[in-house]
Design goal:
This protein is mainly alpha-helical. The chain has 3 domains: 2-160, no CATH class; 184-254, no CATH class; 282-458, no CATH class. It has 19 helices and 6 strands. The strands form 2 sheets. A 4-stranded mixed β-sheet has the order 1-2-4-3, with helices on one face. Strand 3 and strand 4 (339-342) form a beta hairpin. The longest helix has 23 residues, at 89-111. 40% of the residues are buried.
Length: 467
């Protein structure tokens, strides 16, 4: 049975590869996630539904079968002693199309026991992009048979129910992964030992740390403890959180913080070979003067230099190339799709903020897990609430009516905001802080957990769907 399923997957992979000529391959190389060992508190996860559906709908299945096809291609060439290379799919087409049709009933009967809506959507999208008439006929037969088998003896909304359960399970895996340690970012040597404390609340937390853990591991855990306690609705927890954060702020006064930030802001600055560059594709709307264009290009160059130094090059390469639109009539900086819209007076900080949205939206599952994981953990799994309840006095400015956010003791309540499509402000706010060295230093001191969690997401390779 396992061999039959693999053969079917390989056949489907070949058909998909042939038909996906009009699809950006980078958007279909998304992997099945690995899950960390720890578990965090879970919310209803409704804000993740659209994002998870985007990542795990057609994209996930197409990527999975394409990967199987590539792996089998490499193995086939390795057995003959040749170098791995792409298979001549057109040459193999006559050998694959007929067996696929013969086995479709048997294979789809097995697949219908799983979230079949995902597979059906995959086939239907593939049909749309298929240019070969013979392939289109075969794939249409697959889709029709799957729809017939999947509908027999099931409730009318069974596909939606299965998809919802699948999304929820995977969303939980994403958030669990966020429980991983950020200690690797901190100096592994030369980090000063944690000093003794006379505060009983801090002493209690210090005693909970593993005695043989490295200084970096201890600091990372304390940062997380402080942020989590501050997000609690209980006054007792908040007092403990403030005590631990105050202790950490004192610890971070030493010179090691400067060296640490120097490394983080220039970790990847020497990397080369990026497929795109911020500022390569800029459109200027009517009314932008030559002087404004010159200044904006300088700001784009500086913002790109900062991002290149702090964000893993593979992660930047994974995202869609950014288009920039400069419009003097725009109400402010914004991000939509692959386009960042700016005003002529937009600062480097504004540019990095919108680039942060872009990285979160198109950086793969790790960036989504990073943003939503920190929101869920700090809110103790609770639902969002009107932001005016979090900041009733308007200390941090005014908000649009109906704005919702997580109450997670962020530096500003706005950082807990979640948009309807699942995007957040977590990554964008962290990246914008890097525009100014002093601002980055203060952000690290005030909320080291947020700073480290976002560096953890930005400084790793994209989270692949399959290895």
């Amino acid at each position: 049975m396992k061999t039959t399923r693999r053969s079917f997957a390989f056949a489907l992979a070949t058909l998909v590869a042939l038909s996906a000529t009009n699809v950006d391959a980078r958007r279909y190389r998304r992997p099945v996630a690995k899950v960390g060992p720890n578990v965090v508190r879970q919310s209803s996860l409704t804000t993740l539904r659209q994002r998870i559906n985007l990542e795990l709908g057609t994209d996930r299945i197409v990527a999975h079968v394409q990967h199987i096809g590539r792996r089998k291609a490499s193995l086939a060439f390795a057995k003959t002693g040749g170098k791995p290379q792409r298979l001549d799919l057109q040459r193999l087409l006559p050998q694959i199309a007929a067996p696929l049709q013969r086995r479709v009933t048997h294979e789809l009967a097995k697949l219908s026991q799983k979230p079949a809506a995902t597979w059906l959507n995959s086939l239907q999208k593939t049909i749309t992009h298929t240019q070969n008439a013979e392939l289109r006929t075969a794939l249409t037969a697959c889709a029709n048979e799957m729809e017939r088998l999947g509908s027999a003896g099931r409730p009318a909304d069974w596909q939606a129910q299965e998809q919802a359960r699948f999304e929820k399970r995977f969303a939980r895996k994403l958030l669990r992964h966020q429980s991983g340690s950020t200690a690797w970012l901190l100096p592994q040597e030369g980090l000063p030992a944690l000093p003794a404390s006379t505060n009983p609340q801090v002493v209690a937390e210090l005693k909970k740390l593993p005695p043989r853990a490295s200084n970096a591991m201890k600091v990372a855990r304390l940062e997380r403890v402080a942020a989590t306690l501050l997000g609690s609705a209980k006054a007792k927890d908040q007092r403990r959180g403030k005590a631990v954060r105050s202790y950490l702020a004192s610890y971070k006064r030493d010179s090691w913080v400067d060296a640490f930030l120097d490394k983080q802001l220039s970790r990847f600055s020497k990397e080369t070979g990026m497929p795109w560059k911020l500022g390569d594709n800029v459109s200027w709307q009517y009314g932008v003067s030559a002087a404004d264009k010159r200044v904006m290009r300088q700001r784009l160059t500086k913002a790109w230099s900062i991002a290149r130094g702090a964000v893993h090059p593979d992660l930047l390469a994974w995202t869609l190339a950014v288009k920039v639109e400069v419009d003097p009539n725009a109400s402010g900086a914004s991000h939509q799709g692959d386009t960042i819209r700016l005003r002529p007076d937009s600062s480097v900080k504004d540019i990095l903020h919108e680039l942060g949205h872009h990285i979160e939206d198109y950086g793969g599952l790790r960036t989504i897990a990073g943003a939503h994981g920190i929101l869920d953990r700090r809110a103790f799994g609770g639902a969002m609430k009107p932001i005016t309840e979090i900041d009733p006095t308007g200390t941090f400015g005014s908000y649009a009516p109906g704005t919702l956010a997580h109450a997670g003791a962020f530096e500003r309540p706005y950082m807990g905001k979640v948009y309807q499509n699942g995007s957040t402000e977590v990554m964008s706010v962290a990246l914008e802080k890097l525009a100014d060295r002093q601002a980055a230093k203060q952000f690290f001191k005030r909320d080291g957990d947020h700073f480290l969690q976002m560096l953890n997401a930005m400084q790793r390779k994209p989270w692949p769907m399959v290895d």
